[in-house]
Amino acid sequence: MSQADTRTSATLAMVITEVGPKAVLLVVPRLTGVPLPADHQLWTDLRERLADTAIDLIDLLVVGERTVWSARGSADQWLHHDADQSLDW
């Protein structure tokens, strides 16, 4: 993770903590609808940073025009949904 990415996740975790929601669902729009390695790193880093809080980090979704990827799968596997398929998660 680059220093800029670390600062971004630290700042985002600070904002989330200061706002103090019960739960957080992050959504990242991408033209391709496919998550980037930085998206996975953000999810991993935020889970670590918010682990000792009462805030429930529900998911990080990467959305495109016809696809949705969910980070709540296993550590190295995103759950994928295509708009032409039924939602089965």
Describe what this molecule looks like in 3D:
The longest helix has 17 residues, at 3-19. The protein has a 4-stranded mixed beta sheet, covered by helices on one side. The relative contact order is 0.20. Helices cover 35% and strands 26% of the residues. The chain has helices at 3-19, 37-50, and strands at residues 23-29, 56-63, 67-70, 79-82. It is globular and about 40 Å long. The chain has 89 residues and is of the alpha+beta class. The model has no long low-confidence stretch (mean pLDDT 85). The protein has one domain.
Biggest sheet character: 4 strands, mixed
Structural class: alpha+beta
**Alpha-carbon Rg, integer:** 13 Å
Helix content: 25-40%
Shape field: globular
Biggest sheet, strands in spatial order? Answer: 1-2-3-4
What is the H/E order? HEHEEE
Mean pLDDT: 85
| Number of strand segments | 4
Number of domains: 1
> Could you tell me the strand content as a percent range?
25-35%
* Number of contiguous helices: 2
Q: Would you identify the regions where 5 or more consecutive residues have pLDDT less than 50? A: none
The first-to-last residue Cα distance is 29 Å
What labels describe this entry?
89 residues; alpha+beta; four-stranded mixed β-sheet; 4 strands; 35% helix
List the helices and strands and how they pair.
Blueprint: H1 3-19, E1 23-29, H2 37-50, E2 56-63, E3 67-70, E4 79-82
Parallel strand pairs: 1-2
Antiparallel strand pairs: 2-3, 3-4
Helix pairs in contact: 1-2
